[in-house]
Design goal:
By secondary structure, the protein is α/β, with parallel strands linked by helices. The chain is about 30% helix and about 25% strand. It contains five helices and eight strands; from the N terminus they run βββαβαβαββαβα. An eight-stranded mixed sheet has the order 1-2-4-3-5-6-7-8, with helices on both faces. Helix 3 links the parallel strand 5 and strand 6. The protein is globular, with a radius of gyration of 16 Å. The chain starts with 5 loop residues before the first strand and ends with a helix.
């Protein structure tokens, strides 16, 4: 993301996982915690360097969070192969366990990454408080996205493009409606938010600044 981005590997469930970490740029010098961000579908060129994923990382860093991105198994230098979300969930849990410590934790994901993150959130919630969760372009068309724990609704932000040509807004609404989970819709926004990434960053930063 920038010259200060740390790139390294950790041991994951299927071999090494490639990591990119950016440290918080907190004006007051206080680090709020660690955010772990998941990328789009591995079989459709999704990587941790995707522009939306980098935008999420920038929003967290500017809001005082250390931002950790990672490549799912089989992507970049990460070992293993695509596992339809099950193995990828284990990958994200391994990143959380090894790099997020015991301090405040935030989770975020884009597209397929939001689907994976939803299951990580559901698994971790009973045992560990998640300070913030950010779902962007949630892949509710082809995947069974987990419900957000009711107690986590106020800590969660769901953003979707009105004109998303990969995941129709109606599919995300069908996932959110039974939960009465609010969805923030970006007018005329496409799946990759071309020309609207600054707006996306601003919405995420506003969510991160909210006190729950």
């Amino acid at each position: 993301m920038n010259a200060q981005t740390e790139r390294f590997t950790i041991n994951g469930p299927a071999g090494v996982l490639e990591i990119a970490r950016d440290l918080a740029a907190a004006p007051d010098g206080q680090v709020r915690g660690t955010a772990v961000i998941a990328h789009p579908h591995p079989l459709f060129s999704g990587t941790m360097d995707n522009k939306v994923v980098q935008t999420l990382a920038r929003a967290f860093v500017a809001s005082g969070w250390n931002a950790v991105r990672f490549n799912f198994r089989g992507v970049g230098a990460s070992q293993g192969s695509y596992d339809k979300g099950t193995g990828e969930q284990a990958d994200m849990l391994a990143v959380v366990q090894q790099l997020a410590g015991e301090g405040p934790l935030a989770l975020a994901g884009f597209s397929f990454g939001s689907f994976v993150m939803s299951h990580v959130l559901a698994e971790l919630w009973p045992q560990r408080q998640i300070e913030k969760a950010v779902f962007v372009g949630t892949a509710a068309t082809r995947f069974a996205v987990a419900a957000v724990p009711p107690e986590a609704h106020e800590r969660s932000l769901v953003i979707h493009g009105e004109a998303d040509d990969v995941v129709p807004l109606s599919d995300v609404m069908n996932w959110a409606r039974p939960q009465i989970l609010p969805v923030t819709v970006i007018p005329d926004g496409a799946h990759f938010f071309h020309g609207q990434l600054p707006l996306l960053k601003g919405l995420v930063m506003r969510h991160l600044s909210a006190v729950v």
